Please model this.
Amino acid sequence: MAMASELWRFLGDNVGSFVAFVVAFLMLWAAWRQHHAVFDQLERVTPAMMFLHIPLLILVVLLPYPTALVGESLVGDLADNPLTICLFAGVEALLLLCQAALLFVVVRSGVLEPGADGRQLTIKAIMLVVFGLFWALTAVLTWWFSNIPFVWLLSPVVASGASKTAGRWIPLPNESASD
Model:
């Protein structure tokens, strides 16, 4: 019985780390899924695309570390330390911007399979840039505002708004051909 209470105490003391693990897993899953969805539409991979995988993979491997810091800052010794939030948001921003760069290279390199929607990939790339800039802004603002993680709850709104706005700016394929 004593071991069970110790386990519950341990789980309670580390709830921030468990939440952080789930957040990191979901973020990495989304990046992985998007990556595969894009690469399923390619005829071939260019050297530029391979080069962009270097920072992308570094950031994917790095993400769990600042995520663990955020988890620790929720309940542990790092509470109220803006550097933990800044590092997490900064790594996420860089990851999103690398994904956007990769999409722009994919669209511009002419390696999409016939029938692949380059317009949708461009819209997604623009959304990732806006989303990355949103996360970069939160990384900076965390030095002045303590509740920045709550601003991250706006992430779906920012992503959706960026996608809709970019969709209005990027012409449909038949519209650009008639100009």
